[in-house]
Every structure is written in structure tokens, then in C-alpha cells.
């Protein structure tokens, strides 16, 4: 699926619509994704700032999705854990910019080449409109090469 179609599908995802989360850009090679969330009546907390759960939802799947696309179907990629540290109240529009370079992809391939699991951390900041950090997050992913499935018909004798 191309990046433009993928972006459209993500923007139609009901939890994102409900939280007011918008994917603004996905690079054609899935190396960069930009996401934003405007402060609305339905995603603010009691104090009138961004609800922390919505801030986390805004960043939740993107590193895993990027790696699934970059590594291809021969790899298993899962979120393993996450932590978010709220630095200052989020008001107005907040954004997060995800990026994975080719050096990181090659490092992951090297670490998983013999079938071992690899659990890298990815750090990310969430910014307000003044480019101030409102939250810092760390996502830990579980990555491994998938085991080759044997062809069920490989050992069946041919019919004569």
C-alpha cells in the first residue's frame, strides 16, 4: 500500500478521529511521519489542556508501523513497552515528528540476522506550537526475523 493511501486510512481510524489526531505527512519510503492534534473540547482534560491519554495515543503505533513497512514481511515487529513524561501542559496544537534512517534499519537487520530478538528504544518529543517540548516518550519495540515456514507440499511425492 502506498504512503498516501496509508495516511488516508490512518486518518479514518475511529480512535484517531475521536481524539482529534491527524496524520499530516508520511514519506513515500515510510522513513518520516508527522502527526498533530488540535486541542478540542473532546480531547481536553479537567484543567483545559491536552488529555495525557490522547498525547500517548498520538504517538502509539507509528514507530512499529514504520518498521513493519521498512523491514517488510520477513520481520515480526511489536510494541513492547512505552513511557511518557509530561513536561508542561499541552495547549493549542501539538505535534510529533517520527524519523527512522537507513543506518537504523541496517543496524536492526544486523542484530536480528540469526533470528535473535532485538528490543531497541526510540525516543520522541511532542512539541507545542511554540516548539516547546510538552512531553517526552520512549517506545521499546520487539523485533525479530520471522522463521521460515516449510512448504507443506515439499515432501509429498508427485502424483503419477
Description:
The chain has 160 residues and is of the alpha+beta class. It has one domain (3-145): Thiol Ester Dehydrase, Chain A (Roll). Helix content is 28%, strand content 31%. The chain has five helices and six strands, in the order H-H-E-E-H-H-E-E-H-E-E. It has helices at 3-11, 14-19, 52-59, 62-71, 102-112; strands spanning 21-26, 32-37, 75-86, 94-99, 121-127, 133-145. The protein has a six-stranded antiparallel sheet. Strand 1 and strand 2 form a beta hairpin. The longest helix has 11 residues, at 102-112. The termini are far apart.
Q: Please state the CA-atom Rg, rounded to the nearest Å.
A: 19 Å
The largest pleated sheet is described as:
6 strands, antiparallel
Strand order of the largest sheet: 1-2-4-5-6-3
CATH class category: Alpha Beta
Helix content: 25-40%
- Secondary-structure element string: HHEEHHEEHEE
Low-confidence stretches: none
Could you give the count of β-strands?
A: 6
Number of contiguous helices: 5
Overall average pLDDT: 92
CATH superfamily: Hotdog Thioesterase
Q: Which architecture per CATH? A: Roll
Structural class: alpha+beta
- Our estimate of the beta-strand percent is 25-35%
**Gap between N and C termini, in Å?**
42 Å
Envelope shape: elongated
How many separate domains make up the residues?
1
CATH topology: Thiol Ester Dehydrase, Chain A
